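Consider the tokenized backbone below.
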């Protein structure tokens, strides 16, 4: 295991800035996800850590070693690519052995034993003699994972490894990744654009956009207390309502209704955005701190829950309710929430 420190990292491609002033300090044994939309720089950052991209400025430390100028093979990292990158002419066992053979680690017999052990760890030992083309996508994914861990790397790098799997298999592999991480204790950097993956797998989430870090924290911290409109919208698709503060703990929505808000740093007269999570909103209930009139546009039954789309003036608001109780039909209703469940953000 090793800790990872990134200091003032910048990466340019010609006149384009892919990464700008990235600074991170990742404790040994942490499962960290780089999360963000396509093109935000998360895969570029992973490739810089791996040594597959040369940084323009800044430093990367693994443990106490500055690896910024080291080639990939000298960094002692394990990497799993989105495409898996298995050699079709090799058996599963030879694919997993390949990093050891290239590094000249031990005798052939020792390399084969380590490769077999890695395959057993991912429940693929019984398919060691097959070729990659004879495997399903999930099986290929396990082989690629075994190859990434066979050399006992200091850090494990995973570049969207679950994106090619169907929904059920993706859920199964999330559990297996968690179990493997707990067993090995490897510092892991996981790239994904899927917020559910990041939330369920990570000790630490690094939310990125346009080459910059937007927020760093535990999944529950970023979800519960986002610092920007982007963070609130990307994680959980919060409802974002423009408003103006009118007094400490009070604001006026664009629709004209006054509401209570958590007291914060914004003086009276400030333009703000009120963030409301879908699961924190309720229809036609009493006793909450805030209530505004809305029009139910469409209830959508989803089995375990019902999602409602309501209109408040020109805005559409989404909320999630449990399936218990009658489904509220289209028409007038009251939307309510607790003050403590809202968060106040600066405008984008």
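A designed sequence for it:
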């Amino acid at each position: 295991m090793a800790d990872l420190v990134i200091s003032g990292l910048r990466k340019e491609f010609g006149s384009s800035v892919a990464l700008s002033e990235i600074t991170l300090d990742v404790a040994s044994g942490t499962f960290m996800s780089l999360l963000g939309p396509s093109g935000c720089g998360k895969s570029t950052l992973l490739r810089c850590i791996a040594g597959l991209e040369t940084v323009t400025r800044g430093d990367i430390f693994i443990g106490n070693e500055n690896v910024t100028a080291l080639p990939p093979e000298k960094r002692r990292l394990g990497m799993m690519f989105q495409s898996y990158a298995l050699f079709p002419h090799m058996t599963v066992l030879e694919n997993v052995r390949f990093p050891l053979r290239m590094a000249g680690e031990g005798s052939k017999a020792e390399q084969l034993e380590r490769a077999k052990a890695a395959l057993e760890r991912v429940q693929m030992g019984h398919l060691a003699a097959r070729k990659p083309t004879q495997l399903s996508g999930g099986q290929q994914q396990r082989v690629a994972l075994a190859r990434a861990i066979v050399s006992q790397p200091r850090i494990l790098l995973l570049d969207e490894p679950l994106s090619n799997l169907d929904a059920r298999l993706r859920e199964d592999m999330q559990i297996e990744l968690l179990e493997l991480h707990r067993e090995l204790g490897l510092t892991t950097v996981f790239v994904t654009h899927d917020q559910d993956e990041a939330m369920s797998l990570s000790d630490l989430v690094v939310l990125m956009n346009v080459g910059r870090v937007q927020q760093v924290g535990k999944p529950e911290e970023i979800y519960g207390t986002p610092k920007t409109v982007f963070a609130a919208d990307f994680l959980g698709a919060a409802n974002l309502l423009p408003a103006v503060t009118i007094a400490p703990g009070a604001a006026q929505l664009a629709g004209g209704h006054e509401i209570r808000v958590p007291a914060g740093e914004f003086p009276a007269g400030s333009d703000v955005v009120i963030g409301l999570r879908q699961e924190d909103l309720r229809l036609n209930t009493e006793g909450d701190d805030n209530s505004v009139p809305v029009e139910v546009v469409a209830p959508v039954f989803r089995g375990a829950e019902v999602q409602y789309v309501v209109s408040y003036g020109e805005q559409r608001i989404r909320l999630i309710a449990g399936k218990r109780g009658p489904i509220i039909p289209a028409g007038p209703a009251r939307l309510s929430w607790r003050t403590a469940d809202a968060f106040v953000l600066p405008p984008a």
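The longest strand covers residues 290-301.
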